């Protein structure tokens, strides 16, 4: 394994992620991360010299539909069940506060 995760590294990662852990959780996280790194190291043991790089997950290329303009919901239908509305728009409470 190239690097082992210690409690100092867990603290640094927790700080970057704005997380706080107790000592028991830090130990569990360090153990989990070390197991993940060991698994990745195990994958690095595979010989991939004869394997072509995977660019796409399938052989389909540019399978797209044509863009079609169609009305799926009219403005009247959209406003029909709105609790507050005027003739053309939804009305919502103001959420911007000035300090």
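Sequence proposed for the structure above (99 residues):
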């Amino acid at each position: 394994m190239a690097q082992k995760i210690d409690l100092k590294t867990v603290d640094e990662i927790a700080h970057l992620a704005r997380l706080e852990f107790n000592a028991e959780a830090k130990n569990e996280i360090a153990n989990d991360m070390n197991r993940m790194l060991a698994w990745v190291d195990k994958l690095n043991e595979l010989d991939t010299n004869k394997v072509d790089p995977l660019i796409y997950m399938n052989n389909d290329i540019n399978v797209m539909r044509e863009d079609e303009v169609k009305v799926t919901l009219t403005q009247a239908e959209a406003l029909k069940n709105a609790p507050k509305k005027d003739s053309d728009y939804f009305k919502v409470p103001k959420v911007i506060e000035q300090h």
